[in-house]
């Protein structure tokens, strides 16, 4: 990791975004005081790990990416255990209610679904009424409904004026949850801002994706179409970033029609953080 | 009383978590409770006091055999087997008869010098034949066979089995769960809370005490009911030794598991630590069988100390003060390994 410089304000939800291996987990574990940085300074809640470790441990909540809680304990026993480490916070029953696991409190951890396990992990992270919550890929591998459920839970935590720092490789998650995001790639921060600012920064609000049968049109020709800011071709698939959907689409269709090229697919969407990543790195997030 | 939101003190919660985790693992329960009882039972039956058993003697079929067989059978101490001349060596080697006699003047004894049983059989046969041939004993010593409770092999064996069990469950019980928590990144998650690391380690040792009570009651209770094994210095003295042993081996378990990253690695280390003690520390046979120069090393092993102290308390009626040396050895092992484990422990 190099030259990572960022500041997260209290009450903010900040997302570190990037593909696997970008350095998100290392970054968050340095902030959590679990990994020592080689150089540089970390300040959390106005404190430092070196001098105020015990205090910081009481004031932050942590959810790690790879932790497997003990399968042989029940949900309630697990929360009780984590709650016992703190001298302030919600009581065990309240914690279970917050993560909507009250009905599951006598179930063994090993019998929970992926979404329920993640909510249990969050309950453990919330046990000490943390001012700052760290979440490392909290919704990876969850079904859409479980993800939505977790998002709502985090939105409620944030509404309470508390701070969240999370990592994710889901751009939609960052869009929904985060006030600001930092995009990471190969250990560096390559973009920083609100989701809206970042999308605006690529200068194109829309993305047109199409496939043609036969010869792929020349990139220079496509780049010359009205409104086009960027062109990316991957095999038969082409993506155009454009600021003027209404003029680019008719021009593209006219061009293809003149050359008798048949479209096998055409779609448009508003630019997302995903497109920001593609435009910055030239790679798709999921295969980066 | 501090606010813990309905939870107890972390040391209690950690210990209970460990205890529950164990009880909900049926295999673990079998190896800790059922296995030692089965073992005590099997060994007890194998080595039960049988009184004087007849000695088996092979007699080679050739001239003079009937007279020789008659002389042996007349003494009432032998079971005679007829052996073909070609089978002599195989009979002794396979243990079908510890000694084979070839009739003649004088007769010839075939036996295995390295086996006590074989030597004893040879002496008994020799004595019977010499007497039958007319030798007079110079005197007749008075014989008093010892079969009193406290001096049988089973009385000697039960404390050793208990000690071995305290050792293996202490090491396995602590080591396995620690390494498992490490590979599942649970340790890393726990150190991200304000949990005290010493309390975490202590909870593993303490949870051992809960199992220990069960283990000891099962083994000693079984030995008492079935073999009438007694504790001469009282249950309290034995209980104190068992607790001390469990704490000591719990600490050793922590040390063994303090760096290992995989179950395979910790299993190897456990065996490396336990194997010498199984052999040297007097579980099945007395450690005095080993040469004198090894004795200081053997006496310093925690299992030797535990076994000797428990035998003293159960069979010889010694007080705890009388086994103070052993108690000191156990306490030192426990304290040193706990402190060392806390220093070198790998949390991630």
List the helices and strands and how they pair.
The complex is a heterodimer of chains A (288) and B (348).
Chain A: E1 13-17, H1 24-31, H2 49-59, E2 60-63, H3 75-83, H4 92-98, H5 114-125, E3 132-136, H6 144-159, E4 163-168, H7 171-177, E5 180-185, E6 188-193, H8 195-201, E7 206-212, H9 219-223, E8 228-234, E9 237-242, H10 245-258, E10 263-270, H11 273-281
Parallel strand pairs in A: 1-4, 1-5, 2-3, 3-4
Antiparallel strand pairs in A: 5-6, 7-9, 7-10, 8-9
Helix pairs in contact in A: 3-4, 3-5
Chain B: H1 10-23, H2 26-46, E1 55-60, H3 65-75, E2 78-83, H4 88-94, E3 99-102, E4 108-111, H5 116-132, H6 153-183, H7 186-191, H8 197-227, H9 235-256, H10 263-280, H11 295-300, H12 302-315, H13 324-344
Parallel strand pairs in B: 1-2, 1-3
Antiparallel strand pairs in B: 3-4
Helix pairs in contact in B: 1-8, 2-6, 2-8, 3-5, 6-8, 6-9, 6-10, 6-12, 8-9, 9-12, 9-13, 12-13
Plain-language structure description:
The complex is a heterodimer of chains A (288) and B (348). Chain A is an alpha/beta fold and 288 residues long. Chain A contains 11 helices and 10 strands. Chain A has 2 domains: 13-196, P-loop containing nucleotide triphosphate hydrolases (Rossmann fold), CATH 3.40.50; 203-270, 2-Layer Sandwich (Alpha-Beta Plaits). Helix content of chain A is 36%, strand content 21%. Chain B is mainly alpha-helical and 348 residues long. Chain B has 2 domains: 10-47 and 149-344, no CATH class; 55-132, D-Maltodextrin-Binding Protein, domain 2. Chain B is built from 13 helices and 4 strands. Chain B has a 4-stranded mixed β-sheet, sandwiched between helices. The longest helix of chain B is centred in the middle third of the chain and has 31 residues, at 153-183. In chain B, 41% of the residues are buried. The chains are: A alpha/beta (288), B mainly alpha (348). The interface between A and B is medium-sized, with 36 and 30 residues.
């Amino acid at each position: 990791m190099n030259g990572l410089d960022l500041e997260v304000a209290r009450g903010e939800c900040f997302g570190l975004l990037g593909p696997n291996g970008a350095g998100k987990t290392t970054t968050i574990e340095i902030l959590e005081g679990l990994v020592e940085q080689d150089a540089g300074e970390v300040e959390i809640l106005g404190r430092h790990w070196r001098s105020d470790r015990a205090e910081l441990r009481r004031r932050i909540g942590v959810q790690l990416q790879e932790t497997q809680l003990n399968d042989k304990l029940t949900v309630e026993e697990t929360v009780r255990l984590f709650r016992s480490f703190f001298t302030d916070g919600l009581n065990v029953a309240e914690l279970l209610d917050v993560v909507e696991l009250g009905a599951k409190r006598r179930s063994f951890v090993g019998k929970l679904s992926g979404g329920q396990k993640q909510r249990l992990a969050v309950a453990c992270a919330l046990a000490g009424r943390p001012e700052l919550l760290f979440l490392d890929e909290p919704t990876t591998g969850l079904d859409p409904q479980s993800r939505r459920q977790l998002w709502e839970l985090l939105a409620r935590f944030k509404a309470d004026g508390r701070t969240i720092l999370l990592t994710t490789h889901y751009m939609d998650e960052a869009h929904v949850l985060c006030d600001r995001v930092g995009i990471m790639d190969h250990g560096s921060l390559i973009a920083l801002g609100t989701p809206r600012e970042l999308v605006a920064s690529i200068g194109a609000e829309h993305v047109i994706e199409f496939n043609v049968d036969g010869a792929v049109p020349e990139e220079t020709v496509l780049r010359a179409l009205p409104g086009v800011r960027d062109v990316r071709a991957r095999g038969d698939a082409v993506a155009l970033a454009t600021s003027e959907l209404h003029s680019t689409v008719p021009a593209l269709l006219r061009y293809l029609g003149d050359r008798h090229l048949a479209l096998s697919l055409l779609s448009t969407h508003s630019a997302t953080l995903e497109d920001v990543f593609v435009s910055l790195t030239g790679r798709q997030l999921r295969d980066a | 009383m501090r606010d813990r939101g309905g939870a107890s003190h972390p040391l209690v919660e950690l210990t209970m978590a460990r205890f529950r985790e164990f009880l909900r693992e049926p295999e673990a329960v079998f190896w800790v409770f059922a296995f030692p009882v089965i073992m005590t039972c099997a060994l007890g039956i194998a080595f039960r006091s049988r009184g004087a058993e007849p000695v088996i003697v092979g007699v080679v079929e050739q001239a003079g055999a009937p007279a020789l067989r008659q002389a042996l059978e007349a003494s009432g101490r032998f079971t005679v087997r007829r052996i073909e001349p070609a089978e002599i060596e195989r009979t002794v080697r396979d243990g079908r008869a510890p000694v084979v006699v070839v009739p003649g003047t004088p007769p010839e004894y075939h036996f295995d010098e390295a086996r006590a049983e074989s030597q004893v059989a040879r002496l008994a046969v020799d004595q019977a034949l010499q007497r039958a041939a007319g030798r007079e004993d110079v005197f007749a010593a008075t014989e008093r066979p010892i079969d009193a409770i406290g001096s049988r092999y089973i009385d000697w064996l039960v404390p050793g089995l208990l000690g071995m069990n305290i050792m293996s469950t202490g090491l396995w019980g602590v080591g396995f769960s620690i390494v498992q928590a490490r590979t599942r990144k649970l340790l890393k998650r726990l150190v991200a809370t304000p949990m005290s690391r010493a309390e975490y380690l202590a909870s593993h040792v303490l949870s051992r005490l809960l199992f220990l009570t069960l283990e000891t009651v099962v083994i000693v209770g079984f030995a008492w009911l079935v073999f009438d094994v007694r504790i001469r210095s009282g249950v309290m003295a034995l209980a104190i030794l068992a607790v001390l042993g469990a704490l000591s081996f719990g600490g050793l378990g922590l040390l063994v598991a303090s760096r290992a990253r995989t179950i395979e690695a910790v299993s190897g280390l456990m065996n490396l630590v336990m194997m010498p003690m199984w052999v040297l520390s007097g579980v099945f046979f007395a450690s005095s069988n080993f040469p004198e120069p090894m004795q200081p090393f053997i006496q310093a092993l925690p299992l030797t100390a535990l076994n000797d102290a428990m035998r003293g308390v159960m069979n010889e009626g010694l007080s705890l003060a009388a086994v103070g040396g052993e108690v000191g050895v156990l306490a030192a092992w426990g304290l040193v390994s706990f402190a060392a484990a806390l220093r070198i422990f790998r949390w991630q």
